[in-house]
UniProtKB/TrEMBL annotation, chain A:
PROSITE patterns, A to Z: ABC_TM2 (PS51012)
Entry keyword Membrane: yes
Protein name: Transport permease protein
Keyword terms: Cell membrane, Membrane, Transmembrane, Transmembrane helix, Transport
Membrane-related topology note: Multi-pass membrane protein
Sequence similarity: Belongs to the ABC-2 integral membrane protein family.
Location of the protein in the cell: Cell inner membrane; Membrane
GO CC terms: ATP-binding cassette (ABC) transporter complex
A GO MF term: ABC-type transporter activity
InterPro entries from the UniProt entry: ABC-2_transport_permease, ABC2_TM, ABC2_TM_bact-type, ABC_2_transport
Record-annotated ABC transmembrane type-2 domain positions: 22-251
From TrEMBL, chain B:
Residue ranges of every copy of the ABC transporter domain listed in the record: 5-234
Name under which the protein is recorded: ABC-2 type transport system ATP-binding protein
Native source species: Paracoccus homiensis
InterPro entries found in the cross-reference section: AAA+_ATPase, ABC_transporter-like_ATP-bd, ABC_transporter-like_CS, ABC_transporter_ATP-binding, P-loop_NTPase
Pfam families assigned to the protein according to its UniProt record, in alphabetical order: ABC_tran (PF00005)
Length: 256, 313
């Protein structure tokens, strides 16, 4: 295999990040506004009645879930839009005729999507400090989970963008699958608060493992063992890489 | 001149069974301009799309600068620039950033001096900070050329460079190609405008129904197929060709005021001198004569017609 075309990776990454910075206000402002609303509604209104979950004040308890909600949505939408837009505008030909392969294209697009998503998640974390006292028990693992989740879901978004043939299809999976999984994955509650049957059902949801692991890095509390969470993310990342490699090898929806 | 592209027995069939290319073989020499000529759907775009990496062939091989496009694709692609048929640009991006981006994709280090040179040569330097959506159609096409040249390719593919553009712009595009030729870039262009191939190309390849009918130097092709027509205007009106001239293959115009004589410029005797003598001997006064070379259009039609009759036989 030939050496990786690093300037090619950088060109794609930089190009994608530039688009993010062109719309920096809406890119950053809208998550800050929506997070503030979540804190007002969930933290203050509901949190006033719940007080604490497993010893953590409710306002602080929802911070990891909110960050995860954002990182999942942002990763998927950035990566899927990033690769779908050249398909839509016709500029995809440039990627197919230049000396960049699946590895460069994936690193460029997915790297940029994950970076944007992480930046926004960190802005949300910073916003949360204005509302609640959040203490992060394991900062390294917090960042590790943040990175792995952003990577996994950016890869998933990238696949969605490669697959989609219309803007409608591009919206379909995030709307119908990912958002429900996040809400049902314990973003705003602990799975242990559910009746035993529903707790078992909830554990079939892969997003639960991400939120649980992430929350553990903040408070040391987890619905499932942290090792299981890590393995779940690693499997997702590996599977997505395999699928993307297959898509580029066969040219499915890319080449005739 | 050395061979820069070797195409051997290239074919492409789609799952539907459509054969877009069958057994195309040809060599392209360094520094030449070759025009691939053929009607819509003949397989021209398929051929260059395979060489550039947009379409996967079902058979045959292509080597660019000695590099196989399947097994040594990175090296092959570094040598190639493609200007696609459809204008495809990111609407909100600045011209100069778009060109820089392409250069990066090809693994080249930034070189704003070179990019300035390319943009100036294409009269785009003043527009370097404009978003591509603000540009006219002709400028957009030149941006595509600038992008294709961003990494100093040895070979440039122009797919229908003047499809749907007005006459002035077409001339402008021809000038750009002429300048690239002087810079030593090998150019492969597809067109269905015969005039364009005639104007620009050193060699012409004729493609129809996925088959390469021939590749020849333009002048040779014109000479070979390009018979000439002599038109003789008469002083008086004829109702029929005199009996003494009946075996000369003359055609009388419907108004009886002129005669048409087709001849082959490469023949030992064109028969013109004798014909003029015989006209005078038959009491016909010649008022004026003119000659006309067949256009590529006629050459092309005669080639395609030959194929049809061969197929029918």
């Amino acid at each position: 295999m030939s050496a990786i075309n690093w300037p090619g990776v950088w060109a794609i990454f930089h190009h994608e990040m530039m688009r993010f910075f062109r719309t920096i206000m809406q890119s950053l402002l809208s998550p800050v506004i929506s997070t503030t609303l979540y804190f007002v509604v969930f933290g203050s209104a509901i949190g006033g009645r719940i007080q604490s979950v497993e010893g953590v004040p409710y306002g602080a308890f929802i911070v990891p879930g909110l960050m995860m909600l954002t990182i999942l949505q942002q990763s998927v939408s950035n990566a899927s839009f990033g690769i779908y837009f050249p398909k839509f505008s016709g500029t995809i030909y440039e990627y197919l005729v230049s000396p960049v392969g699946w590895i460069e294209v994936t690193m460029g697009f997915v790297g940029a999507a994950a970076t944007k998503a992480m930046l926004i998640a960190l802005v949300i974390l910073a916003t949360s400090f204005f509302f609640v006292g959040v203490h992060i028990l394991h900062p390294f693992w917090m960042l590790a989970f943040l990175f792995l989740t952003a990577l996994g879901f950016s890869l998933l978004g990238f696949i969605i963008g490669l697959w989609a043939k219309s803007f409608e299809q591009l919206q379909l999976i995030p709307l119908m699958v990912i958002t429900p999984l996040v809400f049902l994955g314990g973003a705003f509650y602990s799975a242990s608060m559910l009746p035993p049957f529903w707790e078992a059902v909830a554990k079939l949801n892969p997003v639960l493992y991400l939120i649980s692991g992430f929350r553990w890095s903040f408070f040391g509390l987890a619905d499932v063992p942290v090792g299981v969470s890590l393995v779940a993310v690693a499997i997702m990342v590996g599977a997505c890489f395999a699928i993307i490699r297959w898509i580029f090898a066969t040219g499915w929806r890319l080449r005739e | 001149m050395s061979t820069i592209i070797e195409i051997d027995n290239l074919s492409k069939a789609y799952d539907s069974g459509t054969k877009a290319l069958s057994g195309v073989s040809m060599n392209i020499e360094e520094g030449e301009i070759i025009a691939l000529l053929g009607p819509n759907g003949a397989g021209k775009t398929t051929l260059i799309s395979i060489i550039c990496g947009l379409v996967v062939p079902t058979g045959g091989t292509v080597r660019v600068g000695g590099h196989d496009i399947r097994t040594d694709w990175r090296a092959a692609r570094r040598m190639i620039g493609l200007v696609p048929q459809e204008i495809a640009l990111e609407p909100f991006e600045k011209v100069i950033n778009s060109v820089r981006f392409t250069r990066g994709l090809y693994g080249e280090k930034p070189d704003d001096g070179y990019i300035e040179q390319v943009l100036r040569s294409l009269a785009l330097w003043e527009k370097r900070d404009a978003a591509t959506r603000e540009l006219s159609g002709g400028m957009k096409r030149r941006v595509l050329i600038a992008k294709a040249l961003a990494h100093r390719p040895k070979v440039l593919f122009l797919d229908e460079p003047t499809a749907g553009v007005d006459v002035a712009l077409r001339r402008e595009m021809w000038q750009v190609v002429e300048q690239l030729r002087r810079d030593g870039v090998t150019i492969i262009l597809t067109t269905h405008y015969l005039e364009e191939a005639e104007e620009m190309a050193d060699r012409i390849g004729v493609i129809n129904k996925g088959q390469l009918l021939l590749v020849k130097p333009k002048d040779e092709l014109m000479g070979e197929f390009g018979g000439k027509t002599l038109t003789i205007e008469l002083d008086s009106t004829l109702t029929e060709i005199p009996a003494g001239l009946a075996d000369r293959g003359l055609v009388l115009a419907t108004d009886g005021r002129s005669l048409r004589y087709d001849y082959d410029t490469r023949a030992e005797r064109t028969g013109i001198a004798r014909l003029l003598g015989d006209l005078s001997a038959n009491g016909i006064t010649v008022r004026d004569v003119s000659t006309r070379q067949s256009s590529l259009e006629e050459v092309f039609m005669s080639l395609v017609d030959d194929r049809k009759s061969e197929d029918a036989a």
